[in-house]
Amino acid sequence: MTTLDTIATGSAVGAFLPLLTAVVQRPHWSVRTKKIVAVITALVAGVVTVAYVGGPEQFQHGLPTFATLAAVLAASQSAYDLVWKPTSIAPVIEAVTSPNSAPTVD
Question: Nearest 5°: CA angle at 69, between 43 and 3?
Fold first, then answer.
């Protein structure tokens, strides 16, 4: 696989990552806590993407690995702000998967 393949795959993973992150997050958490969880989730997803697409040897190349991590993070944040939050899909998932909480939309 090439670096471009891992970056493209990372972007695709990042685009849908906010839906998975919404399952973990809780509506009553502070904005800062939610951001920390989103960033950590994106970095973990980036590492998994590099390992899956590029194989373990991909980690020997720092710049392509960093580029893939950055692609996952950028895509996840952009997709959340541009698609998942405005359509209320991510906030509803967050509310529905949270114990003892009613759906709320920011």
Answer: 150
DSSP labels, 31-72: HHHHHHHHHHHHHHHHHHHIIIII-GGGGG-HHHHHHHHHHH
Token code pair at residue 26: 């809780």
Where in the sequence is the domain holding 89, given as residue range(s)?
Answer: 3-96
Residue pLDDT, tens place only, 19-39: 999 999 998 899 999 999 999
pLDDT at 3 over 80: no
Q: How many domains does the chain have?
A: 1
90 lies in some domain: yes
Euclidean distance between CA atoms 87 and 101, whole angstroms: 20
Burial of 16 (0-12, 13-18, 19+ CB in 10 A): middle
Is there a domain that residue 102 lies in? Answer: no
Output the pTM of the full model: 0.82
